[in-house]
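step 3/5: co-fold with NDP
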Amino acid sequence: MGSVLIIGAGGVGNVTAHKCAQIPEVFSKIVLASRNIEKCRKIQQDVKEKSGRNIDIAQVNADNVSETVSLIRKVNPDAVINVALPYQDLAIMDACLETGVHYIDTANYEPKDVPHFEYSWQWAYHDRFREKGIMAVLGCGFDPGVSNIFCAYAQKKLYDEIKTIDIVDCNAGSHGHPFATNFNPEINIREITQNGKYWEKGRWIETKPLEISIDFDYPEAGVKKSYLLFHEELESLVKHIKGLERIRFWMTFSENYITHLKVLQNVGMTRIDEVEFEGKKIVPLQFLKALLPDPGSLGANYKGKTVIGCVFDGVKSGQRKKIFIYNVCDHAECYREVKSQAVSYTAGVPPVLGAMLVINGIWKGKGVFNVEELDPEPFMELLNRHGLPWNQVNFQSSILEK
Ligand code: NDP
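step 4/5: write tokens
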């Protein structure tokens, strides 16, 4: 039995709160805190309706370390799940350090004024977490998160040597809006408009945004154009999967999505610097976020599926093996279960499973860890039991071979 403090009441926080409530044998006490208490209240009501459980709520500005420290002292949780925005990561880690509480997140730190994410800032906390005797689990969403776990599982159980990894992420769903992002628009657009990057033979190779694409045949979703992006798990997997020759990340976008994005970029609406408008300073991308549908509101009419997984190519007992491990998630089913679409669902369930393993002492460690450094097997088992079942098949296609 344990208690958890969830910070962030957006699309992902909603799923995390519902899922914790479904597992009372581990999460006997749940507190959901966010900047806007009304969003917490709405989730609190929905959780009561769906699972019959009462969760507590609180208001917190997690940019402010002392506010978060006071809240943690009041709640006294066994772990903090951070599903606010990447901007808050370091401040919440500072609060966990001060109070001696385990930390779990789903996205790596990114400064507000620079569209650049990397692990160095969070890895720099390793010694302080170790000295304090607590654990930080980084990147425990779906990708990063489950994608890293699939890699750790392949390394541990399926291969002697993994040569290449291709992470493929397909959203074949339709929400009925002309343009919307499936998770926080600011974070999503900052990610996609950056240069692409992949790792091959010991070095990073940079590409223009959305310059390289392939037509990948996704199980249950069919052939979809998938674009090469830089995604944060590549940085840690290159370090932790031994003998790797190449790793890439691919994500699907429709023609319609890309056309909207190009126009928004061309007219300056994706800029993250301040511009003067009628005597006020505004950041165009933040203004755009205010105009776009809230990702949390997309669920009600969302149809179709997400398919996310990893294709491995490597050697086992002297024989070449190509294996695909993936999950398929249905938007409408997620909505029925927790009033969320599948993108929030796939991101919001894994931190709950990570927190379970930390609270139950199955994932143990002092310091800062990426999920692939921890034992993948208990996590793979929990995925099957808590709504994200996975499949493992031999991969037949040559689409990923150059
Ligand atoms: P949303 O924008 O829907 O939600 C973010 C929430 O955090 C909002 O409730 C927001 O409050 C709250 N918040 C923002 N700033 C603060 C603050 N200073 N203090 C307290 N609360 C704050 O985003 P999502 O739910 O879509 O995404 C949440 C996180 O999940 C992001 O970090 C995202 O990158 C990550 N993610 C990870 C994925 C993965 O697979 N690894 C996939 C998808 C998302 P307010 O309402 O006041 O703005």
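step 5/5: annotate
Residues 146-340+389-401 form a domain with the Dihydrodipicolinate Reductase; domain 2 fold (CATH 3.30.360.10).
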